[in-house]
Amino acid sequence: MKVYGCTSVSEFLGDNIVYRNLEPVNRTLPGLGQLAPRLGLPANRVPRKTSRAYAQVIVEILQQAQQQQHPDIPIKTLVYIGDTRMNDGGAFLNIAQVAGWGGAAFIAADKSEPAAITPEVHPQAHLYQANRWALLEEFAEEILPTHFPVNEHTAVVFDLDKTILGARGRNDAVIDRARVAAAAQTVQDLMGEQFDREAFQAVYQHYNQTEFHPFTTDNQDYLVYLCLILSAGLFDRQEVDAQIQSGKLPAFIDFVAQVDAQRTKLPPALQQVHREVFAQMQAGQPTAFVRFRRKEYETTTALLGHLPDETPAETLLSEEIVLTEEVRRAALAWKQAGALLFGLSDKPDEASLPTPEQAVRGRLPLHQTITHTLGA
Prior knowledge:
Structural class: alpha/beta
Shape: globular
Number of strands: 10
Strand order of the largest sheet: 2-9-7-3-4-6-5
Strand content: 5-15%
């Protein structure tokens, strides 16, 4: 690994990014609130990344962004760079299908096995899974040109989390560490002297497993709220496990409803948090635990670019959230070729953007925060 200096995501994406709420940071572009009625989508419901509704919204945003960058030049082809086959691969295939664009995707994670790229062929689209981020150069310079040229007719979409920043298999553990730290600090702030860090971590690790994803929907807001309620002693972990396994708690909202029925047993501060979470869930908002996500913004940005430039690459990879140089190089080349570049993130807006008060104090959005860039 080599350090290539310091930069930010905005170097090549600018503000062409949407976080979880599907409202572009570039406010000249339409967002979910404006597009939902036109597309016949439910109001106040943010679609998940793998859904067709998500793809419909992204296609509209990309087409508007294209008109701003290249008036009267339509998008014909799609390139997608991500780190997970299910979320990113699913989003890529849906976007290509909804728009009717030809496309090619590169899904990567650094692994210890021999370097390889594995293709999948789909109608109109080609998806390549790689076990090295360094193979992005081969994809960009040798594989992609066999399908179509990257030019003014191309939209290149990048996943942000664990692709541009904190590359999966290389640097993603630091992103996870920032999230866990935010969860622990949020619960500690609310519990005060009653907070038991070891007990919290045991509960967090227990429910942060794939076997509980049908219950938590792999939503960190739900997970941290669950840890908070169990830390307060309102329910016993074994009791909750038994209800999940027996089907008495088919969905997380059922657990929250049980808490609501006994909310008066909680301390006043936790009653207020419960009301906030319950209201967000009833409104269909995926970001239910806003306090936790605000803390996550602080812990995540604190790990961007905080180490000295002379820090060894190995230390940067283990202690700082760094930018993936292979992705940066490809992005700059595609930008030079005239392509539209756009970023997608599952990270909540509250965990990615400063509050107005923080912005006044000079705090920057996640994608504008400077950090080191590392690559092969």
